[in-house]
Amino acid sequence: MNSLAPKYSYRRLMIKLCLELFKRPRTLNKRLTIKNLKIFFLYWQKSFRCNVCGSMGKPLFDFPDAELRDLHKIGLLRETLQCQKCGATNRDRTLSHGILSEFYIRTGILHNSIYALSRLGLQGITIFDSDAFSPISRQLKGLTGYTCSSYFPGRDFGDLLGPGHYNIDIQKIDFENNSFDIILSSDMMEHVRDIDAAHEEIFRILAVGGVYLFNVPYDSSLDLNRILVDTSGEVDIFIEQPHYHGDPLTGAILAYRIFGKQIFKDISNIGFCLDFELINNAQNLIVNGDLFRAVKKIN
Ligand SMILES: [Zn+2]
After folding, report:
1. From the CA of 94, how far away is ligand 1's center (Å)?
2. pLDDT per residue over 215-229, tens digit each?
């Protein structure tokens, strides 16, 4: 299968779309729209350098379901325009841009990709990545100073799952205070039940002056977070139709909220200084990439 229709190729996408035609023809109608065709023709021949794996190539536009993306408040281009070599999406490249900028600030070296950065090692900088399977994680796994995690509630938290890879509950993290210089999370926090506990734990394990780089489904028109599930009691109470997002481990994962401007106040109250940036970079094909940068202030 991989040699005939490599991962992240248009050939593989065609096979998936044909299968969908039989399984869920209504969904396919929402994907093969005029708007998506226009976007496809806009981007399919655009050359770019993937700032994750470092390769030059053209993107894979996978004809996302616009209705579903809008419901989840996830931009139409955010999870697509994949690198055909490593699978990095627009969102992955946005986070990668944040990591590379952070290394430039700390070391004075501007790498053009996470791959190039990994060739030189982390140079004493410590990273905790809450995603162990992303294209970024695949480049950094095994490096001294790089720790990643997954969430398996059926297993003991703190267990080692592989080299530098731990089973972690982000609401109660098994690491010492001030352990990491950089912490990464990418579309994870909407799935965490107790968001305040998670933010406090990230603050606790981050070194003073350290940076927490993340992205989440964010609707800047909202003052408060849009609560999808009431978690004030012991049992979840659904306020809206459940929102499930794709997940590499479980297939589908429940979202508890869509973030509004409230996130700035909540995170600042803990002691972070929070910035938000929309990144556009033609060279790396980053289109309206949303990136939060929270610094643990030096008192
Ligand atoms: Zn790539």
Report:
1. 12
2. 999 999 999 988 888
